[in-house]
Write a structure and sequence with these properties.
Structural class: alpha/beta
Largest sheet: 8 strands, parallel
Helix content: 25-40%
Number of helices: 19
CATH architecture of one domain: Roll
Distance between the termini: 25 Å
Radius of gyration: 23 Å
Strand content: 15-25%
CATH topology of one domain: Urease, subunit C, domain 1
Length: 535
């Protein structure tokens, strides 16, 4: 049986639209006018009348954390809290509603949104007011800063004498723990919370997958595997796909900060087997060089303009980064590295230059985020063919702080997504969910308008970096597919490409930019089969 879509506005590629298409055996068979496609109709074919609706290829989120998104959906929601008191009250309500005994995990607070003068970070004493009997861990919205109550600190084994490489543990001048930790130390703190069993993890993973499908995302490149327990995580994610429990295309971005763990992976069964090209891909080594701009853990080349005592946090030393990149290159594995500050970007570019030795970037090594940059670094990215996985939606918050954090001069050459796109860089778009909601339309709005969700500033932040709707859609679809070596079969609605598409409730290409964020998906198809329909 074939599926025919007729009477629509179907986006094929930049400057090209058609009315109709047919899908056969999961692939686009033909595109053209409604009249032409209907002439091929057979009695058993399914026909969908689009009634003029706009159709896009399914979105491909080039970097998120699908399992963490599922966890966040089940956790205490701290987004939008305007005070530490509100964080405490939300925790109390969550505790009373869920009758928890094994701990509370919350995520989404941002001290810059607190309606207080000092905008201090929450502390373990604050969280002790929720409960001192169970562990409580509250992650900042970026995921690079967290705070635990006294019980959580004790259960994680974090004391005033603790040291964690690639992370920090905040203490008072008298050596008293505040409960705040950053970067690698957040992973240690999270161990205070009881670990879910395999079936619970699979359930949250599938729930998150269904959520992103409802938002028009048909492919994800997701970082869910990390550290010494990597085999268990690989196993249950693979089970989800072997059981065909989720019609979402998935590519791994596995994180190993310790080279010993990476070597164990290279010696394991997961390096070769049980991957299918269509729905489940092996993927890339994902590394973290630094943290976040909002948490002042992004690594800058100079001290922060609004805190000269720090340049950020180095999650990996240069020699550690170099060794991991070299080992990946030798084994034919792409590397993508989280780098937000210009100091981190410089380190990553140097590491890639050393392993490439002037040769083509055939493995498409890349940088995730790539926010604070100099013109020289942008030129190096283009010249060396380094892939960039960007999150324009980060501007919703960052445009309000970037000048304060890094100074006006460096801010002018940062978040330069259009510059990279116009110069031919492989730039794809993602959300880093659950850091941001996985909603693609907020992301496209930010790329096109360069304004926050309230329309500030008028004309856009660095308006020369605005992308067109077509460019943003291409970066979210075709460029994302290219980022994972599937540009010949995914990311466009042309013959021979996957029949992965979405039907929108409004025409993204003609509405004012201010209305883009409100766009909703009416229908999501994967291989020509409906996997989501708006009720």
């Amino acid at each position: 049986m074939r599926t025919l879509l007729i009477n629509g506005k179907i986006y094929l590629e930049k400057g090209r639209f058609e009315e109709a298409l047919s899908i056969k055996e999961g692939l686009v068979e033909a595109v053209g006018t409604t009249e032409r496609i209907l002439t091929t109709r057979r009695p058993q074919d399914e026909v969908l009348d689009l009634q003029g609706k706009t159709v896009l290829p399914g979105f491909n989120d080039s970097h998120l954390h699908l399992f963490m998104l599922g966890e966040a959906m089940a956790s205490c929601d701290l987004r939008g809290a305007v005070s530490i008191n509100e964080l405490i009250e939300r925790g109390k309500v969550y505790l009373s509603n869920n009758k928890l005994e094994k701990g509370i995990h919350g995520r989404g607070w941002n001290q810059d949104f607190f309606e207080t003068v000092d905008k201090r970070l929450p502390s373990r004493e604050d969280l002790d007011l929720i409960s001192s009997d169970i562990p409580i861990v509250y992650e900042r919205v970026c995921g690079h800063v967290a705070v635990g109550n006294t019980k959580a600190m004790e259960m994680a084994g974090i004391s005033a004498d603790s040291f964690i490489a690639g992370g920090t543990i905040d203490r008072s001048p008298e050596g008293i723990l505040s409960g705040v930790v950053t970067e690698n130390a957040t992973q240690v703190l999270s161990k205070a919370l009881s670990q879910k069993n395999k079936e619970a993890k699979k359930s949250q993973f599938i729930q998150a997958g269904k959520y992103v499908l409802s938002q028009g995302i048909t492919s994800v490149q997701s970082c869910d595997v990390s550290g010494e327990d990597f085999q268990k995580t690989f196993d249950w994610i693979r089970e989800v796909y072997e059981e065909k429990s989720l019609p979402l295309r998935y590519r791994h971005q596995f994180n190993f900060q310790q080279i010993e763990d990476f070597r164990k992976y290279l010696d394991s069964e997961h390096i070769n087997g049980n991957y299918e090209d269509g729905f489940y891909q092996k993927g890339s080594l994902k590394l973290f060089k630094d943290g976040s701009l909002g948490g002042r853990t992004a690594l800058l080349s100079k001290p922060y303009a609004d805190d000269p005592t720090t340049r950020g946090v180095e999650a990996l030393k240069d020699d550690e980064l170099q060794a991991l990149c070299q080992l990946a290159q030798e084994n034919g594995i792409p590397v993508i590295t989280h780098a937000i500050g210009d100091g981190a970007v410089e380190s990553v570019l140097n590491a890639y230059a050393n392993i490439l030795q002037g040769k083509e970037n055939a493995l498409r090594h890349g940088i995730v985020h790539n926010q604070i940059t100099t013109n020289h670094q942008l030129n190096r990215i283009v010249r060396r063919g380094i892939a960039v996985m960007a999150q324009p939606v980060f501007l919703d918050y960052d445009l309000h702080i970037v000048k304060k954090r890094v100074g006006e001069e460096l801010a002018k050459t940062s978040y330069a997504f259009n510059t990279l796109y116009q110069q031919g860089a492989l730039i794809s778009i993602g959300t880093d969910a659950p850091v941001e909601d996985s909603n693609p339309f907020r992301n496209i709005y930010a790329a096109v308008s360069r304004m926050d969700q309230k329309g500030f500033p008028e004309g856009g932040h660095q308006p020369e970096e605005r992308m067109t709707v077509e460019e943003a859609v291409d970066a979210y679809t075709y460029q994302g597919a290219k980022n994972q070596f599937q540009e010949k079969i995914k990311g466009k609605l042309l013959p021979g490409y996957y029949g992965d598409l979405i039907v929108l409730d409004q025409d993204l290409f003609t509405i004012p930019p201010s209305e883009i964020s409100g766009t909703q998906v009416e229908l999501t198809m994967v291989e020509g089969k409906i996997v989501y329909r708006k009720e």
